[in-house]
């Protein structure tokens, strides 16, 4: 798990980069995935989590930034997959 906004010596921190829509070819459309806008709620339980990952609370603004980053990455991945399919079709 990557921790955000926490200084951890020796571990790389993710760069805050956004894909620029002006570099996207005009003939390729990108569908934006449906991402929930509210953070998931954890069920109230007296039992400790069985997950190997520790739980971490983050501010809602950071959650929204992460959702936006996921949308951007998903759109970029879809765009690249379409471009690769077009290139492969041209090679055949």
Task: Describe the model.
Residues 8-18, 43-52 have a biased composition (Low complexity). Residues 1-57 are annotated as: Disordered. By secondary structure, the chain is mainly α. It has one helix at 60-91. It has a domain at 59-91. The chain has one helix and no strands. The protein is elongated, with a radius of gyration of 18 Å. The mean pLDDT is 72.
SSE pattern: H
Q: Assess the beta-strand content as a share of residues.
A: under 5%
Poorly predicted sequence stretches spanning 5 or more consecutive residues: none
The pLDDT mean sits at 72
CA radius of gyration: 18 Å
Q: Please provide the count of β strands.
A: 0
Name the shape in a single word: elongated
Going by helix content, strand content and strand pairing, the class is mainly alpha
Work out the helicity level: 25-40%
Query: Treating each run of at least 4 consecutive H or I residues as one helix, how many helices?
Result: 1
Oligomer: single chain
The biggest beta sheet is recorded as: none
Kindly, what is the distance between the CA atoms of the first and last residues, rounded to a whole number of angstroms? Answer: 41 Å
